[in-house]
Design brief:
The chain has helices at residues 4-7, 21-30, 48-61, 77-90, 105-118, 136-144, 156-161, 166-172, 205-214, 233-244, and strands at 9-11, 35-38, 64-73, 94-99, 121-125, 150-155, 177-182, 184-187, 193-196, 220-223. The chain is an alpha/beta fold. Helix 2 runs parallel beside helix 3, helix 4 (77-90) packs parallel to helix 5 (105-118) and helix 8 (166-172) runs parallel beside helix 9.
């Protein structure tokens, strides 16, 4: 990804303790970021009035929308086309997505058709060891049976939770690595995870950044830190500094 350090963003879900983008965006800017991945907790992308408000809020704050998600694709073509229309207006191309376990071929074909129509890349979010698409084997199976419109949004912490090496996943799926959630976990003796500032847990951040800087397919690199709900700015600022200072 060219200009990684200047384009890295923050997931608006990190600010889920604040209900409106008018509250979120100044805090995101206070972290030193000017790029966002919008979460559905801050508005319905398929509702015209809410979509207008989200786009206007980001424009007025000088914040670039890199991606949205995580959005579940189920074959509801009308809804999925509405997501595509939002992305076209936002000038963005990556949606972090989920599919239901056992989703049939018709669901993937419908998703591919919407992605083709709106020039999108649908990036599967690997949500941990209990998620059906949380491991390399299942991801490889899906990618073998779908078009390049469907790829990966690599969540590095949830890869760790699934006992996968996130750096190895970034290498294995480099051709379909369209988005990354840069997130870090530590684990207690029972295997329970806790968010930490990226680079201070089990993620090999230098190796990951080297791969991302070399991969022009990766269009969305987004920091996630889900601790400190009432005031995530200090930790998110440190997360961003861990990337920009290298």
């Amino acid at each position: 990804m060219k200009n990684l350090r200047s384009q890295v963003g923050i997931q608006s879900y990190c600010f889920r303790g604040f209900k409106t983008l008018a509250e979120v965006l100044p805090r995101l800017r206070a972290c030193g970021a000017a790029t966002v991945e919008l979460s559905g907790v801050h508005g319905d992308f398929t509702n015209a009035a809410q979509a207008d408000a989200m786009l206007a809020a980001c424009r007025d704050a000088g914040v670039r929308i890199a991606s949205i998600g995580v959005e579940r694709f189920t074959g509801n073509v009308a809804r999925e086309r509405a997501l595509g229309a939002f992305m076209r207006r936002a000038g963005a191309s990556v949606i972090a997505v989920d599919f239901e376990p056992g989703a049939g071929a018709e669901v993937f074909r419908a998703a591919e058709a919407v992605a083709e129509e709106f020039d999108l890349r649908l990036a599967i979010h690997n949500h941990g060891g209990r998620h059906w698409l949380g491991n390399a084997q299942m991801l490889a199976h899906v990618f073998a049976h779908t078009s390049p419109r469907i790829g990966l949004c690599l969540d590095t912490a949830w890869a760790l939770d699934a006992h996968e090496d996130p750096v190895a996943l970034a290498q294995k799926f480099a051709d379909r690595l369209y988005g990354v959630h840069v997130k870090d976990f530590v684990f207690d003796r029972a295997g329970r995870q806790s968010d930490v500032v990226i680079g201070e847990g089990n993620l090999d951040l230098p190796k990951l950044l080297a791969l991302l800087e070399a991969n022009e397919r990766t269009a969305s690199v987004i920091i996630e830190y889900e601790g400190d709900i009432d005031n995530p700015v200090p930790a998110l600022t440190r997360c961003l500094q861990q990337i920009t200072a290298r």
